[in-house]
Amino acid sequence: MSYLGNSASLHQLKTFVFPRFSQWEKLKQLDIDDLVDVHLKRKQVRHPILKRSKFLYDLVQSFYRFREKSRASYYFQLLSEHPCETVVIWNGMKQPNRTPYVVAKMVGKKTVLFENGLLPNTTVLDTKGVNAVNSLPRDPNFYLNWQGKVENADKTLVAREAHKNRKVSKAEITLPERYIFVPFQVPNDTQIVCHSPWVPDMESFYQSIESALTFLQQQTDWKPVKFVIKEHPSWPRSFIDLHNKNSNIIFANENNTQALIENALAVITINSTVGIESLLLNKNVITLGNAFFNIEGLVHHADTQEELNNILLTIDTKSVNQELVSKFLSYMKVEYLLPQSWNKLTDENAHFQAVSQRLDNPYSPCTIQEKANEI
Q: Which of 40, 72, 284, 299 sees the fewest Cβ atoms within 10 Å?
């Protein structure tokens, strides 16, 4: 914390604590379901037995409800007594981060959230939220009217490391001539658990692709195309039961993601940053979940199976506003994102100087627009 000077202190998150009964009355202000539901949903994905056994689920739920009440009482005491004005924490949507984040807001602290960057070699630091609830404007005209410099973005993507328990075959497949790329996401990530209303898991994602394929094959004016799926390398288990289910839906787990995007006709994502990377590589992007980049003219968004079917039917003739894409990506890089990935720093001084400046001057689209108007 030396980069931030004497005004900052570092506290390790507590997972298990003794309850502070002096703070127990304050827990009535809390929505305990808010503190445990996302955590339980993520546990159900990781441990499917929790979906099959109501007794076990109820037992685990009771444990987590008491645990988060205890943690909340601890953070009520800590943050009520601590002289800090601002609490900086990771993500804010999942445990063990959710409880201190919620309590910090309740005791009147300012809150700032860290997250992985939305472009290669960047970091997010946002006062409002991350991913689908971040501070970036959703109005395409905001970006089209932005007067900043449009930059040539670095189009070299950063490969995601495979989970230590994930088996790697090292064998790439030969890609079909015409295909649509479908990157799977981490099934228990908050992007799926919190921000994917009609596609709750990867099996449902596959089913939506297969349903679209069935629809397309019945259309006389449809040009045949295959779908190529890549499982997320950070998820330890493979969806092996789906691998040979449909000859027109192919898995390419060991192929390079950048090559998969570059050679694709389009990319379908729920709300992954692969969608942003695909815009970076000038591809049509179709989103199925809640995403901060669900902006008219930037991507094609489907809220239902029927909407997805119709988008795919005319995907050969669809396009996006390239000026909007360029300005959106440049705006994110120049105005919103911090340089360098937090876990792969090449210049620590430059990165933490940017962090310090952002903490002193939090991002606000209104502030940016006001500065543009002054110019």
A: 40
> How remote is the C-alpha of 141 from its chain's centroid?
24
pTM of the entire predicted model: 0.90
Asked whether residue 17 carries a pLDDT value surpassing 90, the answer given is yes
Q: What does CATH list as the number for 141-329? A: 3.40.50.2000
Alpha helices of the chain — where are they, by DSSP H?
32-46, 49-52, 54-81, 98-106, 140-144, 190-193, 202-217, 257-262, 274-280, 305-313, 322-331, 348-360, 365-374
Distance, in Å, from the CA atom of 117 to the CA atom of 120, rounded to the nearest integer, reads: 7
Rounded percentage of the chain residues whose pLDDT exceeds 90: 78
Residue keyed to tokens 């937090």: 342
Task: Provide the token pair at 217.
Answer: 């094959």
Return the percent helix, strand and coil in the chain, to nearest 5. 45, 10, 45
Could you read off the pLDDT of 21-77 as tens digits, one per residue? Answer: 999 999 999 999 999 999 999 999 999 999 999 999 999 999 999 999 999 999 999
CATH 3.40.50.2000 positions along the chain are 141-329
Contacts of 45 (CB under 8 A, 6+ apart): 187, 188, 193, 201
C-alpha to C-alpha distance for 278 and 181, rounded to whole angstroms: 10
Which is nearest to 175 in space by CA: 231, 277, 250, 238? 250
Say which residue the tokens 């005791």 belong to.
107
Q: Which residues of 200-214 are buried (b: 16+ CB within 10 A; e: fewer)?
A: bbbeebbebbbebbe
User: 100-118, pLDDT tens digit by residue?
Assistant: 999 999 999 999 999 999 9
Report the distance separating Cα 255 and Cα 342, nearest Å.
26
Can you name the residues that pair with 250 across neighbouring β-strands? 228
